[in-house]
UniProtKB/TrEMBL annotation:
SMART domains: AAA. Residues 5-244 form the ABC transporter domain. The lineage of its organism: Bacteria, Bacillati, Actinomycetota, Actinomycetes, Pseudonocardiales. Signal peptide: none annotated. This is ABC transporter ATP-binding protein. Pfam families: ABC_tran, oligo_HPY. Keywords: ATP-binding, Cell membrane, Membrane, Nucleotide-binding, Transport. InterPro entries: AAA+_ATPase, ABC_Ni/Peptide_Import, ABC_transporter-like_ATP-bd, Oligopep_ABC_C, P-loop_NTPase. It is a peripheral membrane protein. It is found in: Cell membrane. Coiled coil: none annotated. Belongs to the ABC transporter superfamily. Its main location: membrane.
Amino acid sequence: MSHALEVSGLEVVYPNGAHALRGLDLSVPRGAVTALVGESGCGKSTVALAVLGLLPRRAGVRGSIRVAGAEVVGASPEELRAVRGKAVGLVPQDPVSACDPLRRVGHHVAESWRVHGEPGPPGGAAELVGRLGITDAHARLRQRPHQWSGGMLHRATIAAAVAHRPPLLVADEPTGSLDADHARTALDVLRSAADAVLLISHDLGVVREHADQVAIIYAGRVVETGVAREVLSRPAHPYTRALVAAIPTPGGGLPTPLPGAPPRATEDLAGCAFAARCPLADHRCAEQPPLVAGVACWAVDR
Ligand SMILES: Nc1ncnc2c1ncn2[C@@H]1O[C@H](COP(=O)(O)OP(=O)(O)OP(=O)(O)O)[C@@H](O)[C@H]1O
């Protein structure tokens, strides 16, 4: 299978010592939406920033990130500028802080073309936000960010990310501030604009509806991966099982909240990071289980 993004053995340590990613392996196939799912703090946004080369300068980064065959780890600022927007587009998690409050919204959308020294198509920004359900787009784009709601600004950042129709889109919680209808439109636009989408989410309902593939991340590593429908209906890793059991289903019993909390990123971890919360943990978990046949767990038969 040909991949739009291949991440292997990715380690990221922030300057404060937070070990956000601990040997992450992830493949995003072309022609599909791949969801990256996990609890808060497990490293999802760090993956997004690493793929675009947007981590703090003093962060320690090891491993490999290949976008359309080009290596991102260790790339020069010029190489990274050429990749951003053209080879990979980012829908950031927080659209409000992504916008300069003094600039018009239209300026932010058009910035996608300007940074590459291109004028962009006439009316291009209005057409893009119009497709995302912003009415009276020309007039609206002359407004400042504070005149737009969070959900509208999210759609402006989606418009900016798809401006060049990059082969890969990384969307960090792109539907967090949208109602179900606008979320569906936004995901349709993402899917139709790019060959491959990495959809970062902690909402398994969104993942079930929109993702083809899924990767479950825990404490900076992928612990289970596969076809989204199959993984969510027959989760194998005890962490995935706990995540699925924690979501309410119509007509189902009461959801079971996930007990305990993930380890802190500043902790030294030996062996399986989930062992402390795992009902199946035994002596084997003192050693880190490798990802085999899509599951990283000693207790799961493969
Ligand atoms: N700039 C930073 N400096 C130091 N530590 C950071 C920084 N950004 C993230 N971290 C830490 O790295 C770990 C992973 O954070 P990250 O934001 O990638 O997780 P996440 O899964 O995206 O969480 P959320 O769903 O809450 O956005 C966390 O422990 C976080 O506190």
